[in-house]
């Protein structure tokens, strides 16, 4: 079986973002196994692109691709797929990837598996692993139709790192212009939070705290530690309990403190992506099956409203 | 303006899934509680807000699933939606978003919606595919992860703001008809009003049997399910609440963290 693998580069301006090299690593595992060709597709408006290692580069060149639009990237992917005839298309699970990847799969009438965390080889082909059922189970998927479109979680694979292995560069001159999308404007809201960014200990609150009043006990718990700060999951921020500048997760801040205490956080992939590099993780949750426990060094199955005041009393006892 | 909101009913996140015998899908106990997918509830709220701005707007709700999903559709009508449609499907197995989106796109062809709203993903499976796929099949533009939405009826467009990675945002104008997949935080979903609860009692939910018309081809299948593996060798503290609190303090103290 000889695969043809197509990767969609993750560009930012005329730079290729590092996650692209993780996609190439993922593709190289398949290529080693099936003697496949790997083509990385770069949508953009770029005159002289540099060759990249691990894949041939195909630049889809069009003035209408100077910035990301869903329809532009979709058309670039379809155009490249016509030329490459891929068995599999690998896209990063980023805000761009999950915006257009499912559309590409639907238009090519292929299979689609999003937020893939790993791949496994069987005598009968490749299997794709992702988590489901609130992160409580690991699901192994099999493609039944080609081409298969997958989105791969950033960080799921290491970066491809063989600098000598440069591929060719070729171009498709295209005339892709967004028909439905206009007035694109990019914004970077001020979400700075030096206290959180420099904290050695982070006490994070999730949906499980239940109400705004319970934030007080989270603050009190934080004050038991030196150089501490409080943070929240997406739900805690959406509910207005904590400001968005203290949101930890894929769409918020990535933190890596010495100690991360997750209080009433279920542990969605989005949240885990923001805190998995913490040195020590403690989780308190009343659901014994909560996904957060998979990412924790110390797991405590308890009601927060009982446990946290008890812990604060314990800490005060030692301080006295 | 005619709006469709596609919703999914999901199990309470604290319910324990039971894997079936062939290990290809999981189900929940009979008495498990279900609710409207949180992201979809925001989509319903957004539709209601649009109707407040543009009187005469009609809001339809659509959901795929077994008999129980009628209660989720009904809840949306109690929130203020006008009509409910239930695509009946009661097999307890993996239903590919590719197939779901084909069924929904088929339904939409007769209804001519100006705007389709969905949540950005489901809370339980989180694949985020069905919305963009519906749009692709209908030839609509789509935007995922929208945190701000304003309809410009005159220009037949929507002004949206979407979330990008690491807190960045992007605003754009998108021509209607379009599909918008909303992110949580776009609004605060309302509670049903008494008058709408009364009205919902008399609103019939139209059931459409789709099991017969399912496309035969599979796109991808789930071949195995296992308990999620652990990234860290975590220890579980045992004993009374006080004992656990003391043990935690001790462990953190040994690591010089407290």
Structure explained in plain terms:
The complex is a heterodimer of chains A (320) and B (258). The longest helix of chain A has 16 residues, at 19-34. Chain A is of the alpha/beta class. In chain A, helix 5 (215-222) packs parallel to helix 8. In chain A, the strands form four sheets. In chain A, strands 7-11-6-1-4-5-12 form a seven-stranded parallel sheet, with helices on both faces. Chain A has helices spanning 19-34, 70-84, 97-108, 194-197, 215-222, 234-238, 269-275, 304-319; strands at residues 4-8, 11-12, 15-16, 37-44, 56-61, 88-92, 111-116, 118-122, 125-132, 137-143, 148-152, 169-173, 181-187, 201-205, 228-232, 259-263, 280-285, 298-301. Chain A has two domains: 4-173, Rossmann fold, CATH 3.40.50.620; 194-319, TPP-binding domain (Rossmann fold), CATH 3.40.50. Chain A has eight helices and 18 strands. With 258 residues, chain B is of the alpha/beta class. Chain B has one domain (2-209): HUPs (Rossmann fold). In chain B, 28% of the residues lie in helices and 31% in strands. Chain B is built from six helices and 15 strands. In chain B, the strands form three sheets. A nine-stranded mixed sheet of chain B has the order 11-10-9-12-8-1-6-7-13, sandwiched between helices. The longest helix of chain B has 16 residues, at 38-53. Chain B starts with a strand and ends with a helix. The model of chain B has no long low-confidence stretch (mean pLDDT 95). Strand 10 (137-143) of chain A pairs antiparallel with strand 14 of chain B, so a sheet runs across the interface.
Brief characterization of the structure:
By secondary structure, chain A is of the alpha/beta class. Chain A is built from eight helices and 18 strands. The termini of chain B are far apart.
